[in-house]
## 1
Amino acid sequence: MTVSQNPEGSGYDLAVVGAGVIGLACAWRAAQAGLSVVVLERDEPGSGASGVAAGMLAPVTEADFGEDALLRLNLDSRGMWPGFAAELEELTGLPSGYSEPGALVVAADRDDAEELRRLHTLQRRLGLDSEWLGPRATRSLEPGLSPRIAGAILAPQEGQVDPGAVVAALAHALVDAGGELCSGAEVIALHTHSGRVTGVRTAAGDTVQASRVLIAAGAWSSEGELGAEAGAPEVRPVKGQLLELRVRRGGSLPASRLVRTPRCYVVGRSDGRVVVGATMEEQGFDTTITADGVFRLLEAAYEVLPDIGELEFVRARAGLRPFTPDNAPVIGPGEIEGLLWATGHGRNGVLLAPLTARRMVEALRGVSTVVSA
Ligand SMILES: Cc1cc2nc3c(=O)[nH]c(=O)nc-3n(C[C@H](O)[C@H](O)[C@H](O)COP(=O)(O)OP(=O)(O)OC[C@H]3O[C@@H](n4cnc5c(N)ncnc54)[C@H](O)[C@@H]3O)c2cc1C
């Protein structure tokens, strides 16, 4: 990899570390705002969590007790997705897989129903758009659901994208807006002068000069020398295994909505792929696919959508979600002048990409401080 310095030779306005959905979205918006931007990715765009994610845009069914501030961020970003996807698709001519199918959180039995009733009460208290449906009403919406289910929460506003497609479109849009994207460029250290950031150094020994550096390295944001010298926020990897299945010739998707249970979710795509996710495992940086992970996901999906058993098994994958101790992302300036962070998006980085990019451009303009819900 050779990183060119920007044409004026004085360095870039912004160097972004990491080409996941967060780094790319921020870089695209910064390039659109007129900054000279380079994204440095040690592998390929989307090779982290963003390339594995299911792509649910699901703030209502992700809402949890004690996370009201995070919910507001998720809802704000959900509201931005229709415009964000339309702009991305129009500028690049590439799909994002955006759709608004709504979601059903299904109770497989009475115990689930009790748990989901509590969740529904919380959703109503928070003023969220959701409705409790009995088994018959639920199955009239999704006839593929098992006759044994005990009801469901309907959240009609939940959406989805195809994260792989979004990453590809963002990379395209970034370059169209004048930004540069360098794959195979691992950043190992910051350059500073008189207490402010002046660029980064790569593993290949290149120095990339930049007046601002944004670290969007996902689960690796606080790793190594870079994380230590940058005063990184605490970010840890939470492993998620996920299955990719496919509808066989002449078949149809097992459900038209996002289907969730307390143990799994099922996301169908318009091209016939079906994603079943995902485990939550504290295993450090391990991404091994385990028999237990595959078994439990299939079992959980089959429990409510028996037609899952008829689908073709394509592959199983694992990704590392970047989690902070309070589950809230860190978006904004760091402690060193010129250093910025966009990391710690946990289970909702795809959902939060439009909002993060907007907040980042505001931070680059100096009109906001650190966001931490
Ligand atoms: C199984 C699973 C399912 C998920 N489902 C959803 C979902 O349905 N909806 C949702 O909103 N979110 C979902 N998520 C969460 C979402 O994927 C993440 O929050 C999001 O992708 C984080 O994006 P990111 O750009 O911060 O990190 P990443 O996508 O991990 O990108 C970080 C990038 O930085 C690069 N990098 C790291 N260190 C360096 C370095 N030193 N130099 C250069 N490059 C470096 C990595 O190679 C990587 O490409 C899911 C995650 C998983 C694992």
## 2
Amino acid sequence: MTPMTPMTPVTTPTPTLTLFDFPATTGLDRWESFSPFVLEVSRAMRLAKVPFATTQVNMMKLKDINPLGQLPAAAFGEEKVAGSTRILERLEALVPGSMTGGLDARGVAEAWLWKEFADTSLYPYVLTTRWVDDRGWPVPRDHFFAALPAPLRAFVPGMVRRSMKKKLIERDFTRAGIDACYARMGRVLDFLDARAPDEGFWVGPRATVGDLGLFAHLHSLRLPLIPWQAEEVARRKRLTRYLDRVDAATPLVST
Ligand SMILES: N[C@@H](CCC(=O)N[C@@H](CS)C(=O)NCC(=O)O)C(=O)O
């Protein structure tokens, strides 16, 4: 009789994860990126409890990482994935249930729809507060262009600001002016405040992609460097308590 050989468990090795971010940092622990989309992915990796490293991209080589010239992008070992949705899907495949909180098909669909809502309907407000509003403009002006040589720094920020203003008009966020835009944002914040759950998360008891999207953009509006804007969110108490819960549920994972 041949002796039985002990079974060796078959495990799929977890790839080394790297999150690419812009060179500018806020210097604030709870705002690990100026970019809401990078923040969203960083919190997703934390929610999935996968250790990851963050690396700042050389802006001249951004298109080597993502031909669309946008962040976030992430490396799962050798595999590069660009775009927040694709990265969150990849995380769900890596750690099943981590992005969808054990919900049924209907709940999962709702969670993704809230992420979609946040990315398309809240992000432009973050852009408006930073690029259009004179009170927020010092944030991009002083932080985003610091690496540029001085002669370029004299005119590039103004050029980018003009282009951002144009895009926000085209996206129909500031077409009627900044006051009308803020009135609309106030209504949206009021509705979200009324809809915010008293406990648990947006769609269920566990955090999902819906929370990641909502948190990323609303938490970016809470950036302390634009106190007026942060106060607009802070006034909505239920929403604020909810955001604090998402913040607490996505603590930093050490590498
Ligand atoms: N649909 C993209 C949007 C990402 C996005 O807009 N990223 C911004 C930074 S927050 C960016 O890279 N902007 C530069 C550009 O669009 O040229 C996603 O979900 O990842």
